Every structure is written in C-alpha cells, then in structure tokens.
Amino acid sequence: MDLPLALGIASAAFILYAAILSIAYLKFLRWRTLPCSADEESGPAESGVADVADPAAAEITKEAVRRYGWPEVESLTGNFTAEVIGEGGFSTVYLACLPGAASSLAAVKVLRSGERLHRAFLQELDVLRRLSHPRIVRLLGFCDDREEGVLVLEYVPSGSLHEKLHGGGALAWARRMRIAYEVAGAVEYLHEGSGELPIVHGDITASNVLLDSRLDPKLCDFGSARAGFSSAVRSAGPMVGSPGYADPHYLRTGMVSKSTDVYSFGVLLLVLITGLPAVGSEEGRVLTVEMGPRLREAEGKAWEVVDPRLCGEYDAAEAAAMAAVAARCIGVQPSLRPSMAGIRQIMREKVSSSLSAVDGGSDGKEE
C-alpha cells in the first residue's frame, strides 16, 4: 500500500471515530438533562415524592431569599418591641410587616447570642435554603451580621398543632388525619426529595407543626436538622429532640437516621389519635410508655385509645389502622420502622375517606 493511500485511510478512520465520540457525548449530555428515574421502563414511581415541588420553583424560592442588615431587622421588629408570637430557650419570634408588600406579615426569629447558637443558626439557614415545599415554612430572608442570627420566615397565622389540641380547642378526626398525612409528606420530601442530600429534621413535634388559616400544616424549626444522612451515623453535635418525641435508640446510641424522624412522627400520630400530649403534666407520664401496650390491642378496641373529646365521631377501622401505624413507628428496632413513603401509602389506603372529606388539603402539591 503506497503512503498517500494509507494516509487517506487513516484520516477517514479518524474522522469516523471523532464523529462517533461526538454523537456519544451529545447523547450523554441529553441523558444528564433528563429527569432521573429508578426504572425508566416502568414509568414514574407511584410511591416517589409526588408532592415534591418542581426544582425550578425551588430555585426561584432560593433566589427570592433576601439578606437583611441589622438596622433593617431593628426596623422590622420596632427595635424588638413588636408582638412576640413565639419564644423558646434560645430564640424569640416577632410578628413583623414586610415593607413594600401590602398586608404581608412575617415571623422574625431572633436567636440568642453565643457561638454554639450561631453555629445552629447557620445550620438551620443552610437547610432552609435547600427547601421548597408547601408544607414547610418558607424562608423569606436572614441576617448574619451579628452573632444573634436572624431568620425571616413565612407567617403562619393559626398557631401550633400543640396549642390547637391542648389549648382548649378541638380538631375533627378527618382534619387530624389530613394533618398527619401532609406532615408525613413534608418529612418524606426531606428524606427523599429535597435535593442531592437527604435531610433528617430531628425534632418533629406538635409544637413544630404550625397551622395556616385553613388549618393545613406547615413543618417548622429546623435548628436540629442534619443534612446528608443516607444511613445511620453518629451525630457530631449535642443531643437534640424534645421530651416524649425523641427516639430512645438515638438517645441511647447517638445514631441519627431517617428512622429517628419516623419515631417522632409516630409519637405525633399518637398525639393526634389520643388528644394527649407526648409528656403529661403529672411527673413521669410519657405517652408512648402509657399507650404502647394498648396500641397492640387497639384492633376492635379503638375507643380505648381515641380522644374522648371526639365523642365517637370517627371511623373505628381508621383509628385501629392508624394506631397500628403508630405502634410500628415507635418500635424499638429502627430497621423495622416503616418509611415515610410507606406510611403515606398506608394512609391513602386506610384513611382515604377522611382525607377526601377535608376541604383544602393540598396533598403536598403547590397550590
């Protein structure tokens, strides 16, 4: 073979090889831009996170978060003389009216000063900026000028679930089931659909579920949240969790996982079923200890565990099914607890009548 012919063949082969590489690379880029699916041939997973907000919407929310200066915080709170709508050991929450927005109220959470509290503030801020879900309180702005971190949050007008259940109010059975279902959707979103990293809330309680004007829930207080836990790992920070809601396995081992939230959700579900607080006013009364044995016998005896203030106005079969779910959630072995997606599926099957009876529930979808 003469040299010109050999060079021609080599050139043609190189051009063909380059074309094949280009086509493959273009296909790769197209694949990277397509929505991911665990099994493309089976279509979207029914138990996926059906209520996860569109990623584009999440980006809009993140861009809309405003950074405030300390003088602006002072102005929003009337130099910290505005109405106090929440107060804890580490923060005070003020009611504020945002300038330039007619009738736009916000909750301004001001943390106490201190190095540890400032680290907790930065952790909560980082988590909140990742989130976009209609059943999670929305971050509107923040201030990190000083050691006293400030979060400007969506105002939720009807107080907490704890106040509604234990402050002399009442909630119908169907509304309680709707609240449980939508809180479960918010936690499922944290665990499975909030971004690249799963998030463990770490402090799911009735006090950390706020109710809007339609009594739909919004999960709040992410000061104990941890991001990046795909399996049980030892927590690097101090012990977190509220009395009566904290997972005994976590308290014993310091191991944090999604099942930590499942346990707390089980306690929340039990609070909704019984109408009792997680920890009683009398010394030593813990709801899970008191009700645990009775939950296993609740089938056919739902009236023994259901809030008597409902005066029998509930579905006994639904109550028995939810008591069984609560019992599984607060089980000793974390590996045997159901996932949040599994809990939602059970609720769709077992309490569908109550879920459909309540007007205004969004099922976690953007409205």
UniProtKB/TrEMBL annotation:
<dbReference type="GO" id="GO:0005886">
    <property type="term" value="C:plasma membrane"/>
</dbReference>
<keyword id="KW-0472">Membrane</keyword>
<dbReference type="Pfam" id="PF00069">
    <property type="entry name" value="Pkinase"/>
</dbReference>
<feature type="transmembrane region" description="Helical">
    <location>
        <begin position="262"/>
        <end position="280"/>
    </location>
</feature>
<dbReference type="InterPro" id="IPR000719">
    <property type="entry name" value="Prot_kinase_dom"/>
</dbReference>
<keyword id="KW-1133">Transmembrane helix</keyword>
<keyword id="KW-0067">ATP-binding</keyword>
<feature type="transmembrane region" description="Helical">
    <location>
        <begin position="6"/>
        <end position="26"/>
    </location>
</feature>
<dbReference type="GO" id="GO:0005524">
    <property type="term" value="F:ATP binding"/>
</dbReference>
<dbReference type="InterPro" id="IPR017441">
    <property type="entry name" value="Protein_kinase_ATP_BS"/>
</dbReference>
<dbReference type="InterPro" id="IPR011009">
    <property type="entry name" value="Kinase-like_dom_sf"/>
</dbReference>
<dbReference type="GO" id="GO:0004672">
    <property type="term" value="F:protein kinase activity"/>
</dbReference>
<dbReference type="InterPro" id="IPR008266">
    <property type="entry name" value="Tyr_kinase_AS"/>
</dbReference>
<keyword id="KW-0812">Transmembrane</keyword>
<feature type="domain" description="Protein kinase">
    <location>
        <begin position="79"/>
        <end position="351"/>
    </location>
</feature>
<keyword id="KW-0547">Nucleotide-binding</keyword>
<protein>
    <submittedName>
        <fullName>Salt tolerance receptor-like cytoplasmic kinase 1</fullName>
    </submittedName>
</protein>
<feature type="binding site">
    <location>
        <position position="109"/>
    </location>
    <ligand>
        <name>ATP</name>
    </ligand>
</feature>
